[in-house]
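Predict the structure of Major facilitator superfamily (MFS) profile domain-containing protein.
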Amino acid sequence: MDMPKRSRAMSDTASTITAVHSDGERETDGHLILDQRKTTQAVEEGHDADTPSNAGYILTREDDVKRLKSIETQRKRQSLALAEQQAKGDVEKGVQATGDGEDDPNIVWWDGDNDPENPYNWSTLRKVLNCGCVSFQTFLSPLASSVFAPGVPLVLQEFHSSSPEIATFVVSVYLLGFAVGPVVLAPLSEIYGRVPIYHICNVGFIAFCVACALAPSLNALIAFRFLAGLFGVAPLTNGGGTVADMVPQKHRGTVLSIYSIGPLLGPIVGPIAGGFLSDAKGWRWNFWLLAIVSGFISLVMLIVMKESFGPVILKKKAERLRKETGNQLLHSKLDIGLTPKDFFKRSAVRPVKMFIRSPIISIMALYTALTYGYLYLQFTTMTEVFQKQYNFTTELVGLSFLGLGAGSLVGVVLYSLTSDKYIARKSAEADRIAEETGMEKQGMKPEYRLPFLPIGAIFIPVGLFIYGWTAEKKVHWIVPIIGTAFGGLGNILVFFSIQTYLVDAFTVYAASALASNTIIRSVTGAVLPLAGLRLYEKLGYGWGNSLLGFIAILFLPVSFVILKYGEVLRRKYPINNL
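Done. Here is the predicted structure for Major facilitator superfamily (MFS) profile domain-containing protein.
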């Protein structure tokens, strides 16, 4: 790794900012240059999402002024400190070797390309332990969102309630916690590290699972479910970042595929297991089991997990070296000069800003929200549908969710086997055409991720029509389950297409783009199911699901518009200076 070159890049970046503030008319161009430099360095170093490159985060104009003043003050202090130390004959403390000493002797960086503290250089076993723990929690937390759905009738019976809205909300309120959590937890993990946030949230998740198991009333159960969701979202919010911390970009696809299995299959497996457990031990044992299993994996995480977030590792290294050397000017190369309060405020509001400023992000968030809302509407109503129409027991109701699981698995396999090949072929075709016409090669475009989007969008209404009308007419129970499989397939294709597109299209701001998407879809997933049972009461299962299907058809053109004009919208409304 060429350390002097990287340091010069930082100097160039500071010069760009200075030029911007000396000429107000060039402010926009300066931010674009800074944005491009940030993206380029992030790719070179294997960073993505909001993990900072050597240039640090892109600052607002006010932050730039603060940072430049801080740098100037620091240089003056450094000169005075060096003079004092030289006078004392203790020059070595003033020129601590930190891997980038040619330009700034007080910058702390990795000790070469093979530094064992760098998570990229960890052993395979260490990486497997970290990824394995997070992946298991990422499976367990979404499972908790739906695990006691088959036992909801038992809950209503115990608390003497017959409200269909309460029956739905007691399940879906968990997702409201999923919506609130990322706004708080993502910035905190970048200030204090991934591991402390995991440990704190694990304790909170266990505590509120126990509280759910002991809930004395429906209102208390709903409140505890919300708080369990808020703490339980930590592995979903920070898990992708943990993988990116340790695994270089060229090897990351396989690991992320394994990690993604949890959020996809957890909500499907939950009702299957919960149906048998509720029937055998009662609904409260769903939460006791969650607390026990989560307690075990939390203990394992406490023992084996190691901090993987580079900026936090380097910050601690700088603190250690300051104590050892007495040189108070030592600082991490990734220290961006913002207080934790300022950093938290910026990171917390960035997803909202991106949703407002970028049409492509807002359109995709709303479309994902629709499909996610339909998915959880089925989670919260399938128990009544199959008990009422087919006289299923609580155990059998859990098994009825296998259709969604099977469809989701088919979607995962289909996308995984074909997406990368399609992208490689399209990129090669584009490069060949560029060579023939003498134009510059574009490489892989994010829009190459989208061909499955309209296909998935078609499967969703098809599944709703099959599920609704066959359940209405009491056709053999396997047929509506097949209908849910079509819906599961469509949902996965839409979800994967949009998620991978956002990562590729917004690079530096990918994590914030995903957070914006997560917040909107989680709120919809919590609220839309409230209308499910009332909808079926008024229109029946056939016309009720048909109404949902017709709405999905109305949104069908959106998928084709995104496929055709996504690049135009992305370039017309770029995301800069957030």
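The radius of gyration is 26 Å.
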